[in-house]
Amino acid sequence: MATLPAAPLRWPSASCTAASHLPHLPLPSAIAAVLVRILSLPDKDFIQEQLNKRASYLSSRLIGTSTGQLVVVPCNIGFHWILTMINVEKEIVYLLDPLRHRIYDQDWKYVVNMALTLYNAEAGRKGKKQPTWEVVKAPRQPDAKQCGFYIMRYMKDIIENFGVGDKESLPSLFTNLKYTLVEINEVRSEWAECMLDYI
Questions:
Q1: Domain holding 157: CATH number?
Q2: Which of 47, 93, 120, 150 sits between 20 and 30 A of 190, alpha carbons compared?
């Protein structure tokens, strides 16, 4: 089945731990650094404006999708990568999170829901009151540093296998809840080869 990738909001990295992005400081200095970040957070109006901009951008990527097509949307929600698959026609959103099997980031849920609302308005169709969200239990990362590679592996498996044989639903693609080191190293190698083209 053909898929239409949507541009990620940030570039993938292997890490999903906020602590790894802080310098190695003595405890009082580290606490002070965190407080500075908290106190310098933008106000609610600014945050809402940014969320609406993301929704508008995502909505523009949904235009022109074909019947039965899934839109692939990798997203960094703050030191952690997740994968969202959107069935625009049925307004079903599939969430794949390698760290937890539940909807965790409500801001991202708002962005996707608003994007579908904007798309429906542009397409002139009524649509659902609220999109349906389904959490897909895909393999979970064994630590806090491999979310980017797991998201790339999810996309590889979905693009290569979805709709093939009895793989007619996203959950049916992920019968095992673990990836082998060989499977993860495969996407690591592909990512490295891709990066070499830009060096």
A1: 3.40.395
A2: 93
